[in-house]
Write a structure and sequence with these properties.
Strand order of the largest sheet: 1-2-3-5-6-7-8-9
Number of helices: 12
Number of domains: 1
Number of strands: 9
CATH superfamily: Divalent-metal-dependent TIM barrel enzymes
CATH topology: TIM Barrel
Strand content: 15-25%
Low-confidence stretches: none
Helix content: 40-55%
CATH class: Alpha Beta
Bound molecules: zinc ion
Largest sheet: 8 strands, parallel, barrel
Amino acid sequence: MLRRIGGWVPGKARLVTGLHETRAWGLTAAQIFLTPAHKAVIFAPEDGVDTVGLQSIAEHVQLFVHAPYVMSLFPPLVKHSRQLAPLRMLATHAASIGAVGLVLHLGEIDEYGETAVVAARQMIEDLPIRIFIENSTHAALKTVVEFIVRLRDSGTDVALCLDTARAWVAGDAALFGDARAFDTLVNTYLTPALGLFHLNNSTQPFNVKTHQGLYAPLLFGSIGTEWFERVLKVFPQTPVILERASPVQMVVDRAVVTAIDCDLTHTLFALKNHPISGSLSQS
Ligand SMILES: [Zn+2]
């Protein structure tokens, strides 16, 4: 089976139209919000959200719902209990449209001991949809994955959403470069936990002070493509969401992933040197 590849599809009332366009571009997965990006308020039919339309597209396009940025597995403690009800509502809504997963940021936490496992289980256990926990810029991938494995061992159905740029910022780049470290990464960290890739692809450089714009272009950024290529090849079935700067760039990035999947080294080389992708890197 070919890998599912998709991108962010924005919108509220235009969501279904956007998903149809995405499908016409050959994308077989998509990531959407069912809330405003920064509020835990779920879109309603009166906002123009077409639930039936989303259900019908979910039969063809694998949908991942991203939780709003104000929700994460580990927000400041005072907000923790206040998130339980909105998270459950969002998970129920996501499941009702036929989405396959809900992506939730890990957030920030000081220690990943038993207290953290109990708190995480309280939030996500028994939700009607699989939770994909996205790695944090503040924690090493090893720590994040060990935590996810402990949650799984406790019977909670979660998977890792590996965001490439976040792993890079968290200092995990060496894991992908060095051959022995790469084997450990694959066998110890990714094989037991990986469920989804975020290939993160904004044109903004990382700003250390604000922790914003931490992404580099897929073809031209400081991160480079080599480790994407290596890790994608090991997990040929894992879906990829392109977190891209523009729809055009998303189409180029899809071609890159497809070329890697099909081992079309010459195509990849041509894309890297194509004037269109060159101009995208400057945008
Ligand atoms: Zn991401």
